[in-house]
Amino acid sequence: MKTKTLFIILSFTYSFISYAQKTLDTEIILTSNDTLRTKIRIYATVIDNGFFNNELNFYKSVRILDGDGNKHKIDADFIKQMKFVDLNGKKRTFVQNSGKLAELKYNGKITWLRESYQYNYSKINTDYLKNELGEEVKMGEFNSYRNKLKQITKSKPELKSLIEETTMNDAGILLILEKYEGN
């Protein structure tokens, strides 16, 4: 009986400590071009240095605190752009993408957006690449990032071998986009 009670107490304590609401200073530009400098509320855990599944906190809406500590919710439809520094010290920018907020991963001749959503308790990412000609590709769980990168960078065929050799993670995709840019 003591072991079961101890287990329940430890489980409760761990869940309370590891999953908490935090606030971050942020700048939000609304679709009306008004700018808000406020705090956003996020859910954070001790996993991944305190910032886990952060994008899911504002997929369709953002919870903010005004100067008096009152809580408000802004739907993503009304947000043009949102900027903040996360709990790991990384600068993040989110922009509206079809009524949802997507992270702006790269902005150059090709724009790279990442939209995150939850499905069956899992975080799913969908990446969108749009080139200077207005062509867009969608990269997700069930298609080849390499093929989509070749498609969006077809105006620079010299990148094909780099795309084949590069590991398809964020750093690899960023490297390809920078090479496309001419850097």
From TrEMBL:
Entry keyword Signal: yes
Secretion signal span: 1-20
Entry keywords, A to Z: Signal
Protein name from the UniProt record: DUF4369 domain-containing protein
Organism: Arcicella rosea
